[in-house]
């Protein structure tokens, strides 16, 4: 019993469809229909293989960014990458570790390697629909439960603009079905969404009988996954279309933003933080209080003044003053420790250092309770003197070099 490949010119490059031939056809090799000539008269083969992926690069991506789905992005498995990103590598890296021996197969799939194609066509011949796979089924249930739980916790438990939004709990089955459908459409398997959605909504009323939301969501995800496995699942006979980098980035970014928006809603409306007394303060109240605090008001005013100063004096001078005010070299603090002005000479700095060193030397302090404090102060004095001495010495060298250069130019 043979197989054949059919290609549609409207599907673009790599749009090859694997079909099971009739019993009367020759049972040897994969057959491919000849590609029709395009309208421009040029002979272009629509079955050109996609750019080949490397197993070594895939393993490197798996090793250094696998928990975020980097290797799946490299292999154009965007759905798989998004699931890994949401679950940190399949629930704290469990799925990520389980893929260590699956990378070569993923690469052969991405490259449409003849070996993979032969094995895939054998599966098409052996199974009218994809067989049950516990790994995929468990993934559907877990991701469906995760998305449903995320929808649940993101619903505000307080009045928002005077509105009670608790009715949004009816969107939870929508999240469950999306999680189930997303995992079910990874790789060479696919299925329609509405079967999962319908099953999720039919199972969701069990939440009124099962008071533990964890179990009710688990039941909803389980029913949705069973429905997908029993009614929706089928082979993806056409290799997944490889979108452009721009379209892929747009779709993945949109999915990431939506996912993060649910977490942001949970944190803002339902999240709490602990205060000094151990009480819980809602994050939205804490944020409101922070924005009304004197610290934030002063910071806003300082930023506004800096912006106006930069417009008037130039951004280079503004950045220079900001950098100097940060005292990254410790010069200002060192002047303060030694008690001298910023215009003090090296002789004045040395005199202050010697005087303070004698005053705070630990050997001169008899009280044991004050000796540790004096020792710390003595160390600060030494560090301050060292910092200022280095700065003064560096400036003298620069001034001398500049003077020598000026004399050379005059001559």
TrEMBL record:
This is DnaJ homolog subfamily C member 22. The gene is Dana\GF21821. May function as a co-chaperone. It is a multi-pass membrane protein. It comes from Drosophila ananassae. GO terms for cellular component: early endosome; plasma membrane. Residues 25-34 have a biased composition (Low complexity). InterPro entries: DnaJ_domain, J_dom_sf, TM2. The chain crosses the membrane at residues 56-75, 82-103, 167-184, 191-209, 215-231, 252-269. Residues 333-403 form the J domain. The lineage of its organism: Eukaryota, Metazoa, Ecdysozoa, Arthropoda, Hexapoda.
């Amino acid at each position: 019993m043979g197989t054949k490949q059919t290609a549609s010119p409207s599907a673009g490059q790599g749009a090859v469809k694997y079909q099971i031939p009739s019993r009367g056809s020759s049972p040897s090799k994969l057959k491919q229909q000849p590609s029709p000539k395009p309208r421009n008269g040029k002979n272009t083969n629509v079955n050109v293989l996609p750019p080949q992926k490397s197993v070594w690069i895939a393993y490197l991506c798996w090793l250094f960014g696998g928990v975020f789905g980097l290797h799946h992005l490299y292999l154009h498995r965007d759905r798989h990458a998004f699931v890994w990103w949401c679950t940190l590598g399949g629930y704290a890296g469990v799925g990520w570790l389980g893929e260590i021996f699956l990378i070569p197969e993923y690469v052969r799939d991405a490259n449409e390697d003849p070996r993979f194609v032969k094995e895939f066509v054998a599966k098409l011949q052996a199974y009218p629909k994809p067989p049950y796979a516990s790994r995929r089924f468990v993934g559907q249930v877990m991701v469906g439960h995760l998305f449903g739980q995320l929808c649940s916790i993101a619903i505000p438990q307080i009045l928002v603009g005077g509105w009670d939004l608790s009715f949004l709990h009816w969107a939870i089955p929508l999240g469950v079905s999306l999680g189930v459908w997303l995992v079910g459409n990874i790789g060479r398997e696919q299925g329609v969404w509405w079967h999962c959605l319908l099953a999720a909504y039919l199972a969701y009323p069990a939440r009124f009988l099962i008071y533990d939301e964890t179990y009710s969501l688990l039941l909803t995800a389980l029913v949705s996954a069973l429905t997908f496995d029993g009614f929706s699942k089928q082979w993806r006979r056409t290799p997944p279309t490889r979108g452009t980098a721009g379209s892929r980035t747009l779709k993945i970014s949109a999915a990431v933003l939506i996912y993060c928006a649910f977490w942001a809603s949970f944190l803002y409306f339902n999240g709490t933080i602990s205060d000094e007394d151990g009480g819980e303060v809602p994050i939205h109240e804490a944020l409101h209080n922070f924005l009304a605090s004197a610290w934030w008001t002063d910071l806003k005013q300082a930023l506004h003044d800096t912006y106006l100063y930069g417009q008037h004096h130039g951004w280079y001078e503004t950045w220079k003053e900001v950098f100097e005010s940060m005292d990254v070299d410790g010069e200002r603090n060192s002047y303060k420790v030694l008690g001298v002005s910023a215009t003090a000479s090296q002789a004045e700095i040395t005199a202050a250092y010697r005087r303070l060193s004698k005053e705070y030397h630990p050997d001169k302090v008899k009280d044991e309770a004050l000796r540790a404090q004096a020792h710390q102060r003595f160390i600060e004095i030494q560090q301050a003197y060292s910092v200022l001495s280095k700065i003064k010495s560096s400036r003298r060298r620069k001034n001398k070099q500049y003077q020598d250069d000026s004399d050379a130019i005059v001559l």
